[in-house]
Amino acid sequence: MSVTTESSLAVLLVEDEQVIRRFVRTALEGEGWRVHEADTLQRGLLEAGTRKPNLIILDLGLPDGDGVDFIRDLRAWSGVPVLVLSARVEEYDKVAALDAGADDYLVKPFGVAELLARVRAVSRRHAREPGGGTAIVAFGEVSVDLERRQVARGGQPVHITPIEFRLLAALIAKPDKVLTHRQLLRDVWGPAYVERGHYLRIYMGHLRQKLEADPTRPRHFLTETGIGYRFCPNVA
Amino acid sequence: MNDRCSEPGRSPGNHAQIEKNRIRAGRRASWLGSRPETGEPAGLPSVLWGGYSAALLISLSVTFAAMPLLPYLDQVNIVMLFLLAVVGVAAWYGRGPAVLVTVLNVLSFNFVFVPPHFAFAFETLQSVLTFVVMLSVGLIVGQLTAQFRHQAQVAHAREERARYLYEMARELSGALVAEQVVEIGERYVEGSFRVKARLLMPDDHGRLQWPPVQPGKPGVDLAIAQWCFDHNDSAGPGTGRPPDTPSLYLPLKAPLRNRGVLMVAPGQRRLPLVPEQRRLLDTFAVLIAIALERVYFATIARDTLVKMEAERERSSVLAGLSHDLRTPMTALIGLTETLTLKLIAEQSPYQESLNSIREQAERMAFLVDNLLDMAKLQAGRVWLHKDWQSLEELVGSAVRMLEQALRGHPLQLALNPELPLVNCDAVLIERVLVNLLQNATKYTRPGTVIGVTASAATDWLTVEVWDEGPGLPAGREQALFEKFARGRVESAVPGVGLGLAICRSIIEVHGGQIRAENRPTGGARFTFALPLEPLPPFEADDEPDPEPT
Question: Are B429 and B389 in contact (CB under 8 A)?
Fold first, then answer.
């Protein structure tokens, strides 16, 4: 279904550097996207309102304002997925952007392949989200029955505690998406727990011990250092 | 000098003696009837003698003035004139001259006006009675009047002190820097007590500083002042320690700590001060101390603000620089890749060159990262985003970042899953691990093992990154952590030698240690240790895992 509408998908690119806009446009047009450009945040908000894009790619380092405010403004009236571009120094801006409702991020400098992979993941997830997930999710040699709250690895049932299961479900619900520490703590433990990072570290460790082949080098429950975690069902 | 200061309170007998002297001085002051509260207990004898000579003069004047009136007035009325003179002298000159004028008046009255005239007459009962009554009335009236005058003077002096205190407090409240407080404090202490005053301030290490040299200011014994400051106690005349200093030293006690020392040297007034004035001086000292403390915190607040501004400016410059440097790099890499895709489609022979361009651009991006990180770490305070981190997780993500580079090396990770969480900045510690692992891949041949080992002691988490390469140049192991240091001067391995300097800065801001050494079995080993802290409370509101079967 999504394949038929892909040709008419539009992306809004909010970036002040013309060279970057150019190669991103080339790459995205090669994938069949229609590309609208904006070089300031103000212009970006206007374009987002008028063009109704299916995806927004936003540079966090724009000179005319704070990208996080842009996302908050946008989220007041639109659920369009947002992919954030940032330089490494802006790590904590990135977290703020994700907490404010951005869907994913790319660190400059990034390659075309990386960009396209992220764009696909974000738009795929977005297309799937309203329909809800299936009851059984499988990744690697693990299968999770979300309705019966059962987990098996290599056909053998694995004991999962209720909190571990809540954490697992929260990660599975957003495949390929980076979830910030704050978001996970809020979803699994509640709003009062957003500052208790050690809860997350400990339970994440448990999950990896139980579900990863090598917990030290995880393939599915990936760490985004300083930001959060990402669940990758399909290992390349 | 030092001996004197180290034990200033040594002789209790001496202390008591001084105490006695002080009390005697106070009492003498009030007996003499001069202005004991406001000023000169025994200070200005000329005024005093003026009082007595005035008494003599007035007594004579009244006698001579009354003489021509004798035919017209009764003796009784002439006595009134003499009493009036007593009242006047008592009111103007106090008790002493009043006593004198009374005695003189009685004698001259008896001599001149009581018959026989111009001879003393004590034979008749009447003359004796007149003499006694006149003397007692004169003394009582003189005493009462002098007391009244004394009370008035005390009240006046109190009012004046209150005014001084009030004015000093008002001026101090407007002071913005410590120098102003010093100037105001010295001025008011000197003005209200008629002494010489100096305020001594400590430096950042609690050592009192020499005050600026000013003409007319008394010399300071810094050793006594320092003793006073350190022991939070006063020294000098009236305190009994040390026995022979001419000046009084008072610590300036503020609510939080001592802010300095007030030195009072004798000026128009001698020391020691009477108890009431000592108390007053203490009040002055407290006011000055509070003003100094306020100025101190105002300065701290201002400095902090300036530092925050500088910090903000620096990080915004770095962010701007990072953005500006990364933008062309992003464009370069992106455009190269776009081109690569095209060349692949055309099966062009230039693909290889384009790949090299891309690799070089990526290396440059990495270098820029290192330089910016170094700049950030060197700029002084790094804002650590600390949280409880699992080392296993940090090693895992560092290894994933270096997946390409580590491909040729078997990796040996010895991380106990029971390692405690460590409170650190994840991004920075990951950077340390990435730099150490990357060094290992750069300086060792493919196929050799690279390992990470971690262990925890009571309060340190120790992490080792080791390899089986050629090892480190002997004797230069620690020098590698200097900026722009390379293991070998002319090396084919690319890099500028910032990686290890960054590692050291990061570990040091975490309060940890890092060192490099050669392993006994060959190869290099980098070890860093991070301090462990007790984990915050953990409410395990969860069902436990069943025992493994």
Answer: yes
Candidates A29, A36, A112; CA nearest to A80 is: A36
Residues A136-189 pLDDT 10s: 888 988 999 988 888 999 889 999 999 999 999 999 988 888 999 999 999 999
Query: Checking phi first, is residue B215 left (phi over 0); if not, alpha (psi -120 to 50) or beta?
Result: beta
Give the integer Cα–Cα distance in Å for B137 and B86: 9
In terms of Cα–Cα distance, which of A215, A182, A211, A176 is closest to A197? A182
Virtual torsion, Cα B425, B431, B434, B435, nearest 10 deg? -130
Size of interface A-B (CB pairs under 8 A): 137
| Look-up of token digits 């860093």 | B528
Pairing relation of β-strands A221-224 and A10-14? Answer: unpaired
Question: Domain limits at B185?
Answer: 175-298
Contact indicator for A36, A48 with CB cutoff of 8 Å: no
Cβ-based neighbours of B397, under 8 Å, separated by 6 or more = A222, A223, A224, A225, B430
B29: left (phi over 0), alpha (psi -120 to 50) or beta: alpha
ipTM given for this complex: 0.86
Cα B28 to chain centroid distance, Å, stands at: 42
Q: CATH number for the domain including B485?
A: 3.30.565.10
Domain end among B334, B357, B378 = B378
Strands (E), B375-533: 386-389, 411-415, 422-425, 450-456, 460-467, 513-518, 524-531
Q: With contacts defined as CB-CB under 8 Å, which chain A residues touch B365?
A: 109
Provide the whole-model pTM. Answer: 0.62
Q: In chain B, how many domains are there? A: 4
Q: Which of residues 135-194 of A touch B (CB under 8 A)?
A: 159, 161-164, 181
CB-nearest partner of B399 from A91, A111, A217: A217
Look at residue B546 and tell me if it is in a domain.
no
Residues B72 and B167 in one domain: yes
Helix ranges, B174-221 (H)? 178-193
Residue A97's alpha-carbon distances to A11, A13, A90, A144, B367, in angstroms, are 19, 16, 10, 31, 26
pLDDT band at A48 (very low <50, low <70, confident <90, very high): very high
- Which residues on A lie below 8 Å from B413 (Cβ)? 216-217
Residue B359 pLDDT more than 80?
yes
Q: Does A26 touch chain B (CB under 8 A)?
A: yes
Task: For residues B14 and B163, state if they share a domain.
Answer: yes
